[in-house]
Amino acid sequence: MTALLELEGLAKHFPVRDALGRARGAVRAVDGVSLSVEAGTVLAIVGESGCGKSTLGRLALRLIEPDAGRLRFAGEDLRALSPRALRARRRDMQLIFQDPFASLDPRMTVEDAILEPLRLHDVVQRGGERARVRQLLERVGLRPDMARRWPHEFSGGQRQRIAIARALASGPKLVIGDEPVSALDVSVQAQVVNLLQDLIRELGLTFVLISHDLGVVRHIADRVAVMYLGQIVEEGPAAAVFGAPRHPYTRALLAAVPGTGAKAALVEGDPPSPIAPPAGCRFHTRCPFAEAVCRTEVPGLAGGEHRAACHLQDRLPPAPALRERVAGGERLRRLQAFFGAPAPQPEPTGETA
Ligand SMILES: Nc1ncnc2c1ncn2[C@@H]1O[C@H](COP(=O)(O)OP(=O)(O)OP(=O)(O)O)[C@@H](O)[C@H]1O
């Protein structure tokens, strides 16, 4: 297998200024991330709101400039490319945004929106562009005659299909989907996920799925990287991460998803500030299993298929045996805080609050 996308020690720190414009530290949004995405596979990046997923996605495509680290696409150093060479390379790397209401220009017809990347990257011979637009619309499940309509005439799900057609227009090898279905009605989410899955298979796409929805992730990911406070705490094949999570944070994430069978002590409190993340393992301030060593040591490379997993992994009790510590409404509130979104319904525990 060959890696299409390789990140090594990637970092992005956003400066923080006070009301008078004075420097007041930096948000360490992405803080030393190394990942490799094999061609033709789906890697999911999961983690709670604010952990740095979107920033990482943008860095990976060099839509924003990293402060440090290496970034390679098909073996080529993306950071070394001139602006012109990078623009040409964008043909191969596309992003699907979360909000289909914001990502389509209301002043452009659907046809013009899809023609733009076709023309920019000179993908189709002159004269064949409009036929290509119609083909793309059909491929994403829309009628070709919808090409002349305006974005406001479409539902959220249809708009996201248009955004997908636009992202695919240049024939990319790599697509990053930043929460591509989370702004959609629950009733249409599955349809768009299935469409993405079909396109990934049919076109042999390499796909990076940024999502806090572990149900979607479990459905389509080959590998999963779990992010916490700007770093990857665990990475491995999806079946292993879901079936035998090794980091307490991963277990807490899985425990919040109904139907996984996993139960773990939910993490307590709010995440620490990304301006001054804790030393050692960044999760130790909320980890129910933290030991003294966690305050100083960063989890190292673990053996086997997993990378960057917790040193406690072999001593943690099996996930289903862990007891939840928070019950009823309090648990729901914490889940809500945890995901920054409507919380999934908790499974009945058989316990009284
Ligand atoms: N342009 C920016 N300037 C300053 N801080 C930023 C900027 N973009 C992101 N951040 C901060 O970086 C951190 C990571 O944000 P990011 O959006 O990457 O996280 P996320 O995991 O994608 O969260 P969400 O799911 O809520 O979008 C947050 O603390 C955020 O406030």
UniProtKB/TrEMBL annotation:
Entry-linked SMART domains: AAA
Entry keywords, A to Z: ATP-binding, Nucleotide-binding, Transport
Positions of transmembrane segments: none
Top-rank taxon, per record: Bacteria
Localization, UniProt: Cell inner membrane
Pfam families in the record: ABC_tran, oligo_HPY
Gene Ontology molecular-function annotations: ATP binding
ABC transporter domain mapped to chain residues: 5-254
Entry membrane topology: Peripheral membrane protein
PANTHER family named among the record's database cross-references: D,D-DIPEPTIDE TRANSPORT ATP-BINDING PROTEIN DDPF-RELATED (PTHR43776:SF7), TRANSPORT ATP-BINDING PROTEIN (PTHR43776)
Family: Belongs to the ABC transporter superfamily.
Name of protein: ATP-binding cassette domain-containing protein
